[in-house]
Amino acid sequence: MILAFSFKEAAVATPTVGCSEVERDALLVFKANVKDPSHRLASWSPRIDCCKWSGVVCRGSKDNNATLFQGQHVVELNLENPNVDGDEQTFHTALRGEILSPSLLNLTRLELLDLSGNDFEGAPIPHFIGSFQKLKYLELYGSNFSGVIPSQLGNLSSLYHLGLQSTMDAIPIAHRLDWLSGLSSLNFLDVNYVNLSTVSQSWLSEVNMLPSLRELYLEECDLNYIPSSFTSHLNLTSLVLLDLGFNDFNSTIPNWLWNLTKLSALDFYESSLFGPIPTKIGTLSRLRKLYLDSNNFTGSIPTSIGNLTSLTTLSLSDISLSGSIPSEIWKLSNLQSLDLSYNL
Questions:
Q1: What is the mean pLDDT of the chain?
Q2: Edge-to-edge order in the sheet of strand 215-217
Q3: What is the CATH number of the domain that holds 281?
């Protein structure tokens, strides 16, 4: 399926010496609450400058006149499980327990927080995360959260990356998404496997409040509605990746999609779409990856598919297509993967 195009742009700090005592003590409280079976936090000792601890990055600061050096502050806490995609290894190297302590609020300069692949044992995402006013990058991918996603995340006005993708073992739920309006700088949003059934009627309007958004992941979110048209002004024209796979829309491909002319990847895998594949698919000329598998389309492949000359992956399997393969498909000279299996 679609792979993320993003990388951590927030790694802007330069590790230096001179850890703040208050911030060091906050991290030691954090460590005390953590189960660390593989000793990933072994370097976290009060005898060692906390700016040299594993996963901790500091940056020096000066006064407002940029003349007097004010010491070091923790700006990144990168505790991603090194085996985040490794199944059994992931289990053995995950930090566990109630590993988010309010003591972390003493990290007042924190810009990056990555706890992906750890095990929060089904706990809800703490509300206090919304108090990290300088946070730009928050990644909680596959960290075994459950419960309701707190609306306080909308206070993170500097955030440009928000990763909330859950696992199948613990599925958080969003009762509302209006808090997204506070994240005007967001360009990456991943809520794959989060239960959005409560906001199924309004999800597009809520996400449309993010004018800078470039990547949107909404795979298997229990969505059962996608509007065929969108009467409000569409702000999502910066999108380069849209993943709506494994939902139950029971709809035709929506008309507003043709305004997303910067799209490079589009995924509607097994999303209960029907009707013909629209001729306007050819207007998405920047597409490199297109997944429409396992839907209930009718008719044949439109000849406009030949306009998508940037395609490297075209996957149209098991969607009840009939007729012949149009000769225009041979215009796709960049194509590396073509799947037309299980059709008519």
A1: 91
A2: 56-62, 69-78, 112-114, 137-139, 161-163, 188-190, 215-217, 241-243, 265-267, 289-291, 313-315, 337-339
A3: 3.80.10.10
